[in-house]
Design a protein that fits this description.
- Keywords: Signal.
- It comes from Zasmidium cellare ATCC 36951.
- This is AA1-like domain-containing protein.
- About 15% of the residues lie in helices and about 45% in strands.
- It is built from 2 helices and 10 strands.
- The radius of gyration is 22 Å and the shape is elongated.
- Bound molecules: 2-acetamido-2-deoxy-beta-D-glucopyranose (NAG) (4 copies).
- One 2-acetamido-2-deoxy-beta-D-glucopyranose binds next to loops.
- The site of one 2-acetamido-2-deoxy-beta-D-glucopyranose (NAG) has 2 residues, from loops.
Length: about 160
């Protein structure tokens, strides 16, 4: 009798807590990208035509979501004499290669790949989370070009694929 009551309490507990239920039945607790990513020390430098400095974009990417923690540096430098520009289309990998970004001149887009066994068996265990933000950076004119800076931003995670 006592056993049956305990069993009933256990089942009620599981019914009220779907996450622990999933964990019990599938041995799987999905990773969830929900807390916005932090973009810190964002610096955009656009050289003047005559300058011999390279244009660049640099920032830190921080993900604090449980079991998805990443803290990495992202940099894109336009080689001197290159005909490409900072905002020319294309993705650049961050130091942690699971993270990549693209800058179109106004919007910073980020993608972040991760593995989660809850998604399925390899190779179906990977997902990509996406985010975007317009930095609204503070601009400063220097001798060699123009700097745009933003100390900290919170980038919402807009989609998953
Ligand atoms: C870059 O330009 C500055 C002056 O604008 C000059 O002093 C410096 O030597 C140059 N550097 C190179 C590597 O050309
Ligand atoms: C990220 O890493 C940098 C340097 O490695 C460190 O200074 C900073 O505190 C870290 N931030 C977080 C949120 O872990
Ligand atoms: C870049 O261009 C300058 C002048 O046009 C030239 O002196 C220099 O060697 C070039 N550098 C490279 C890496 O091509
Ligand atoms: C951009 O930043 C300035 C000051 O840093 C602030 O006053 C303004 O409201 C910001 N605009 C947006 C759209 O976030």
């Amino acid at each position: 009798m006592l056993f049956i009551i305990l069993l009933a309490i256990l089942q009620l507990g599981l019914a009220l807590n779907p996450a622990s239920f999933r964990k019990l039945v599938k041995d799987c607790d999905p990773k969830i990208e929900e807390i916005p990513w932090q973009i810190t020390n964002f610096v955009l430098f656009e050289k003047k035509a005559a300058s011999n400095q390279s244009s660049y974009l640099a920032f830190h990417f921080i993900d604090v979501n449980e079991r998805l923690e990443v803290n990495t540096t992202c940099v894109r430098t336009v080689p001197l004499n290159s005909t490409s520009t900072l905002d020319s289309s294309g993705w650049t990998l961050c130091k942690n290669n699971n993270v990549a970004f693209e800058w179109d001149g106004t919007t910073l887009q980020l993608s972040r790949d991760y593995k989660d066994k809850c998604l399925g068996k390899p190779p179906y265990d990977t997902a990509t989370a996406w985010g975007r933000i317009k930095p609204n950076a503070t601009s400063t004119t220097a001798v060699d070009g123009v700097y745009g800076m933003k100390t900290e931003m919170h980038m919402p995670i807009t989609s998953l694929s």
